Amino acid sequence: MRRPGVELCGIAVAALLIAGCNGGSSLDGSDSTTPPVNASAAGLWSGTDSVTGLTMTGVINSTGQADFIRSDGTQFIGSVQVSGDAIASSLGVYVDFGNAFADGSTHGLGTLSGTVTSGGTLTANVAYTTDGGTAVSSVWSLSYDTLSTTVSSLSAITGNYTNGTDGSVVSISGSGQMTSQDSTTGCVLNGTVSTTSSSIDVYQIAYTYESCGGTSAVLNGVAFTGLAVLNPDVSPAQVIVGVSGQSTSGYYGIVSYLNAS
Questions:
Q1: Is the domain of 8 the same as that of 53?
Q2: Strands 121-130 and 107-116: what pairing?
Q3: Domain that holds residue 6
Q4: Residue 197 dihedral angles phi and psi, to the nearest 5°
Q5: Count of domains in the chain?
Q6: What is the DSSP string of 194-243?
Q7: How far apart are CA 241 and CA 228, in angstroms?
Q8: What angle do CA 7, 13, 16 make, to 5 degrees?
Q9: pLDDT tens, 21-61?
Q10: What is the pLDDT of residue 13?
């Protein structure tokens, strides 16, 4: 004669054994497999562009906003997405104000795809087409810069700087106000400096120009935004700023090298 209690117990044990054989599945049928850990792309990256041979400086903040600055002033700007060790982004490409691509255009659109390791390397295939129709493909081989871990703060970046491009004095206050006036073009700059994470050496920049004259008049009223990095290890200390903006008259990119006064 069967004992109902014993039979039910045997069924329960068998169910547990079957569940155990299914590895990562729980009793309710859900998958308990641990998802892969995404690499971190935040920080500063340096290396070369395979097409031009020019050096690259990559600046990526804690939210994924990125500005890859080539040494000729061309900027590749986007918001990077990381899944595992794969990195990807759409890009807006801006030449430095006053310059142009060989086909006469000053802007383009492209994509970035590759791999990244936290605090290690970033290798990317980059393809873009200028507004003039020129298609370009390149490979970037970048390495993590230990300067990335320098703590960022408004107190650290506060001071007066000389713009290496036009000689104007740029002032950054302790509250993050940024001001400047160029005696040659008449351009008056007003903006702000801020941080999204104090753990990496990346700053957010936003400013506008007014009173610009001559060929710079097209910059009046354009809202420029971008990223900056402070290098306190050189003498004098230097801030590299990359910003971009657009208006009905076009797309504009500006790279500035500010040397502490």
A1: no
A2: antiparallel
A3: 1-34
A4: -155, 125
A5: 3
A6: E-S-TTSS-EEEEEEEES--GGGGGGBT--EEEEEEEETTSSS-EEEEEE
A7: 4
A8: 145
A9: 444 444 455 556 777 799 999 999 999 999 999 999 999 99
A10: 39
